Amino acid sequence: MAAEVSPLKISAAALAELLATPLDAAPKRRHAWAGWKCEACGTDTTPERRAGPAGRNSMCNRCGLKYAKAKKRHRLELKQRDEQRIRAIMSFDALIHQPMSEESTDSIDAWR
C-alpha cells in the first residue's frame, strides 16, 4: 500500500514571499569593510575589491573592472601604434635600399 501524501501547510505570508523571489536568483553578496572606500566612486560595499591605480584593493568591483578594461584597451592601442611605426620604418627602409631602375641611372648620367 502506498502512503498518502499530506498537503504542505504553509502560511499565506510565507507563500507570498516565496512567489515574490525568482527561483534562479542567487543572493548578492555585498560586503562592507570597515574604514575602506572605493578610490573612484566612494562606495564602501562591494562583492569584491579590485586593484586600481593606487594598488591592490583600492577600487570596488565595478570601478576595478572598468579600470582594468580601460588599461587593457590602452595597452592594445600602444601595441598597434608601435606596429604601425615598425611597418612604416620597414617600408621606408625598403624604399631607400631598392635597386635603381635604368631610367633613374640614365637621368643621373645626363646630369654629369
Describe what you observe in this structure.
The protein has 112 residues and is mainly alpha-helical. 49% of the residues lie in helices and 11% in strands. It contains 3 helices and 4 strands. It has helices spanning 12-20, 61-96, 102-111, and strands spanning 31-32, 45-46, 50-52, 55-59. The strands form 2 sheets. Strands 1-2 form a two-stranded antiparallel ribbon. A two-stranded antiparallel sheet has the order 3-4. A hairpin with a 2-residue loop joins strand 3 (50-52) and strand 4. The longest helix has 36 residues, at 61-96. The protein is elongated, with a radius of gyration of 34 Å. The relative contact order is 0.07.
Which stretches are poorly predicted, pLDDT < 50 over at least 5 residues? none
How many whole angstroms does the radius of gyration measure? 34 Å
Number of strands: 4
Specify the structural class: mainly alpha
- Count of separate DSSP helical elements: 3
Largest beta sheet: what is the strand line-up?
1-2
SSE succession:
HEEEEHH
Q: Please give the share of residues in helix.
A: 40-55%
- Shape, per Cα inertia axes: elongated
Strand residue percentage: 5-15%
Overall mean pLDDT: 80
Main pleated-sheet profile: 2 strands, antiparallel
End-to-end Cα distance, whole Å, is: 120 Å
